[in-house]
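EI: anyone free to look at a 168-residue chain?
SC: sure, send it
EI:
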Amino acid sequence: MHAPASHSSVVVNGQPFVLPQSTLASATLLHVLRNDLALNGPKYGCGLGQCGACTVLVDGIAARACVIPAQGVAGREVTTLEGLPRRCSRTAGLHPVQQAFVDEQAAQCGYCLNGMVMMAVALLERNPDPDEAAVRRELSGNLCRCGTHVEIMRAVLRAAVLMREAQA
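SC: here you go
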């Protein structure tokens, strides 16, 4: 019989990271990202996985980092807002979704921005040409208290165009 491993690894934004056993025992993914890796894109909002501020991609699927135990991502790939530019075919600059949010001025306080952008990326990777109803459904679980919903909708639809153009 052998002793259990004292750590596990995860890939965050393309870089391997070792999760110490002490972290695996108690921390959430959000805690590890913000406190251990200094990745501040994902925000702590409600702590219940309901507001979307902490959204990241785990193996390409949108997930709420505040409710995922750190041990739950061992052996998986996590992408945060900071890692988005490397997910697209561009070699430099912003991811097309990030650029569309800038172009459409789709932020006011910016607290929801991480979740909105990450959900939009997940949607557009699955469905490169969504209609407005599909975007509304995808973002329905993300809270924006400032009321920039119209600009966010425009940004996601614009991002779809930018991503299709980047593929051409």
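EI: Helices lie at 21-26, 29-36, 96-103, 113-126, 132-139, 149-167.
SC: 👍
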